[in-house]
Amino acid sequence: MLEVNRQPMTDAGVTIAEAARRTGVSVHTLRYYERAGLVVAPVDRTATGRRRYHRLDLDWIKICTRLRATGMPIRTIRRYAELVSAGRGNEQERLALLEAHRADVTARLAEIQDNLKLIDHKIDVYRGRLEAGDADRLWAPDRREDD
């Protein structure tokens, strides 16, 4: 599992505010993850009903956050969480889900690389023209209509 925060945790867990601090997401996001079915185990509660997060919870939240940051849709994260929660026997489906997402991320990275090449080209053109002293010859749209 991913390392979240190496501060010691007691068996009693941590508050929602501390969990937010340790995972880097807001309290609102933590509540949303729970409501949206993105957690793999019910979040523990104190006798007074306050949430208590344990290492498993924090590690899983970090995984969800990373998957979301790579563009995985909420419904797919939910499905992955359901599979993990169900336990053994569905590893092939988990693998297929992750491989499909990896293919999507790889395709987006390739597109971003192509776009970056265009930006690099434009930067080179501008630098070259500025160094040559003829930047005023760079193309600019002329919106005047001929009358």
Shape: elongated
Summed up, the helix count is 5
Radius of gyration: 24 Å
Portion of residues in beta strands equals under 5%
Helix content: 55-70%
Span between termini: 70 Å
Largest pleated sheet:
2 strands, antiparallel
pLDDT below 50 for ≥5 consecutive residues: which ranges?
1-6
What average pLDDT do the residues reach? 90
Topology, number of strands: 2
Order of helices and strands: HHEEHHH
Task: Report the structural category.
Answer: mainly alpha
In what order do the strands lie side by side in the largest sheet?
1-2
Give a verbal description of the structure:
- This protein is mainly α.
- The chain is built from five helices and two strands, in the order H-H-E-E-H-H-H.
- The chain has helices at residues 16-23, 27-35, 55-69, 74-86, 91-132; strands spanning 44-45, 51-52.
- A two-stranded antiparallel sheet has the order 1-2.
- The longest helix has 42 residues, at 91-132.
- Residues 1-6 have low confidence and may be disordered.
In short:
The protein is mainly α. It has helices spanning 16-23, 27-35, 55-69, 74-86, 91-132, and strands spanning 44-45, 51-52.
Helix and strand arrangement:
Layout: H1 16-23, H2 27-35, E1 44-45, E2 51-52, H3 55-69, H4 74-86, H5 91-132
Antiparallel strand pairs: 1-2
Q: Key features?
A:
single chain, 147 residues, mainly alpha, two-stranded antiparallel ribbon, 5 helices, 2 strands, 59% helix
